[in-house]
Amino acid sequence: MRQFRILLCGLAVAAICGLLSGCGYNQIQQKDEAVKAAWSEVVNQYQRRADLVPNLVNTVKGYAAHEERVLTEVTNARAKVGQIRITPDTLNDPQAMAQFQAAQGELSGALSRLMAVSENYPNLKANELFQTLQAQLEGTENRIAVARNRYVQAVQDYNSYIRQFPQNLTAKMFGYSVKPNFSVANEAAISTAPTVQFDTSKPAAAGTH
Predict the structure, then answer these.
(1) HEC string for 73-101
(2) N or C: more exposed end of the chain, with fewer CB within 10 A?
(3) pLDDT, tens digit, for every residue of 42-64?
(4) Who has greater pLDDT, 16 or 141?
(5) What pTM does this model have?
């Protein structure tokens, strides 16, 4: 009798697993985890960029201290980015995503203006530390673009899947909803790397820092 009950339980578990699999539950889980993993990489790369800002600002300040407005913009934008946190568990909040994008876009714009200002200071452009930081910034911006594109694709795959029948019923039953993605309005701002061209043919001006 006991063995019969165990057999029935085993069959019931197998039937439930088969039902969930057939309704897309397992695939929803996998795609949801893929979105979370992709988002974690996006955050890591944005954090890498934020970590470069203090050294970059201090280096520029050493040669262009009177460019206070631009330096303040970068510092404030970096601070705002640090105040916004979107964890993998809160990715379904469109408002939070919009705030995150706006903050990152603001920092991108401030960094672009900072790089433009550096063109006016030959000694700064020739500074080895500044060149290193600028190269690291450009490399990080490229990694951000790659990570962001992977996230966009993961969200599109997930959203498309849970809208299909019968997965849409399973998603509704277990509380899985469509996730917000990066908006088109912010695409240009967050995908354009701040750049500065170094002209090594020009000698540095006298009175280096």
Answers:
(1) HHHHHHHHHHHCCCCHHHCCCHHHHHHHH
(2) N
(3) 999 999 999 999 999 999 999 99
(4) 141
(5) 0.77
Contacts of 31 (CB under 8 A, 6+ apart): 154, 157, 158, 161, 162
Closest CA to 162 of 30, 7, 43, 66: 30
User: Which residue do the tokens 């969930």 mark?
Assistant: 20
Is the four-CA dihedral 163, 167, 173, 178 of positive or negative sign?
negative
Q: Report the sign of the C-alpha dihedral through residues 56, 57, 59, 63, in that order.
A: positive
- First-to-last alpha carbon distance for the chain, in angstroms, is 89
Going by C-alpha positions, the residue among 117, 122, 140, 125 that lies closest to residue 67 is 117
Task: Give tens-digit pLDDT for 108-146.
Answer: 999 999 999 999 999 999 999 999 999 999 999 999 999
d(CA 136, CA 104): 17
- Token pair belonging to 144: 């951000």
Domain boundaries, the chain: 26-191
According to DSSP H, which parts of 23-93 are helical? 25-63, 68-83
Distance CA 60, CA 42 (A): 27
CA 151 to chain centre: 8
What gap in Å lies between CA 125 and CA 131, rounded to an integer? 7
Average pLDDT value over all residues in the chain: 82
